[in-house]
Each structure stands twice: as C-alpha cells, then as structure tokens.
Amino acid sequence: MGKLQEVRQRIQSVEGIRVVTRTLATVAAAKLSRTRRRAAGLRLYAHHVREMVLHQQLYAAHTGIDLGELSSLLGPRPPTGRIAVLAIAGDRGMCGGYNLEACRVALDFCEGRKAAGQKVLLLLKGRKAIGYFRWRKAEIQHQEPWRREGVTAEDVERWLGLLLDRYRSGEVDEVHVVYTEFHSPIRRHPRVVRILPVELPARPADAVPAQAIEKWHYEPALRELLDELLAVYLRVQLYDVLLESYASEQGARMITMEEATERADRAMQECRVLHNRLRREAITIDLLGALYADRASRAAAAATAGPA
C-alpha cells in the first residue's frame, strides 16, 4: 500500500505541473499573437519612414548636401573610446535557452570591445540580464525590468531619451543593441546592431535618373527637419528591437511549455499504468488473503468438530 500511495502522490504532482505548463503555454501564445500583430503594423510604418529617409539621402546626394554635417546623429565623430551597449533579455525563465543566448552574445561583444581598448557602458533590460551581469561583477550604468504590458510607448521614449542624451553629450561614440531577432516560435537569432550613429542604407545617386528625383523645399530648415526625422527613425528602430525580443521570449516560452506539457502527459500515462498494476496486485493479494483466511477458518472448524 505504501508504494501505491507514493504513485498516487506522484500523479497529483505531475497533474499540477501539467496544469501550470499548459497555462503558461496558453498565455505565452496569446502574448506572442498580440506582439506579432503590433509588429506587423509597425513594419508598414517603418517601411514608410525608411523610404522617406532614403529619399532625403538621395536628394542630398544629388544636390551635393552632406547630411553628416547637418545632424550629429549621422557620420563619424571624434573618438572618446567609450561605447554604450543595451542588452535585452527576459524577466522570467522557463523559456529554454533564450535568456542565456542573449546574455552570452552581449558578454562576448562587450569583452571583445574591451579587448580592443574601449570602455563599455552597460545598460540592461530584463531581470535575467541584470542577474547575469551582476553575478559577473559587471559595471552596470542603467537597468530596468519589463512591464507587465510588455513593450509600451513609454518604455520606447524613455530608452530613446536615455540613449540620445548619452550620445549627444559626447559621453559615448557609438550605441549598440543586443537583442533576439524573431523568425518563428522555434527559430530565433541573437544579434548585435548599431543604432547610433545612424547608418543609412547605401543607395547610389545614379540608381535613379536625375529627372526622377523629387525636388524638396524645407520649412523650417533642413537641419531641424532632419533631426526630427532621424529621431522618428530611431524610435521605430528601437520599438522594433524591443518587440522582436519580447516576441522571441514568448515564442521560446510557448514552445518550452508545450514540450513540458507533452512530457508531463507521458509521465502521467506511465504513472497511471504503474498505479493500475499496483492496484491489481494489491487486490489480488487481498483476495488471496481472504481465501487463505477462509480456508484456515474451515480447517480450524473441521479440526474442532472432529474429536467431538
């Protein structure tokens, strides 16, 4: 009976685990679906913003205007030997190797830049990234966890202001972001991208005939408009990397919890088979005990009646 009771307790434990993993998989799937819808809408907006920036680049190249001289966000600047790195990971575990992969890529990138003689200012998004670098005694300049809502416009504005202030003040030469690019729930890839100074896609001026290039009139001046346009471009880019990271985390958690649910189902089936076998053995033993007791009582009754 002790073995049977132990199996029953194990069935209860596995059932509880299965409920938790199935719930986490369902929640992650819902968050992933919502994030992908937001990313799809942002992708169209980002396409139009990118086209507008490319039009200005093409017009400037045709008219001989150097955009790097008009905005501090474009082109090289006097080196200071310092860079800022924003590393993005999750707040919780139970998502496979998502957090560890992102943190390792960030650590390798930072170590490589330090070996090249640069000082790295580390900025972290997510409790797992904070714990990873704290354990390695890294010098953290700024840190914050995720909100319950996921990616919000307030988070994007706050991070954009923080990164722009450090770059415009000359505290850092470059700003890099380590995030996880989302392809599908089972495929993701940690990446390092430079967002400052802004690197516009190369498009030669002779790619479009001169007569097809639109003539632009700027009001107010081109410098102010370019700064505002680049700020929008950076805001969209930062929004995109946050959404990609959040979608990668939810996709990894959904797949991991679905696999854990399947393993719990198999363990439940094995426990039930074992439980039924032990129960049959216990019933058989009880029946044999009853039969032997009945036979013994009959034998005792016969022995008692014999001498009489």
Can you walk through the features of this model?
The protein has 308 residues and is an alpha/beta fold. The chain has six helices and five strands, in the order ααβαβαβαββα. It has a five-stranded mixed β-sheet, sandwiched between helices. Helix 3 crosses helix 4 and helix 5 crosses helix 6. The mean pLDDT is 84.
Quick summary:
With 308 residues, this protein is α/β, with parallel strands linked by helices. Helices cover 63% and strands 13% of the residues. A five-stranded mixed beta sheet has the order 3-2-1-4-5, sandwiched between helices.
Task: Summarize the helix and strand pattern as letters.
Answer: HHEHEHEHEEH
| Extended strand count | 5
Spatial gap, N to C terminus: 43 Å
If you average the pLDDT, what whole number results? Answer: 84
Kindly report the spatial arrangement of strands forming the biggest sheet.
3-2-1-4-5
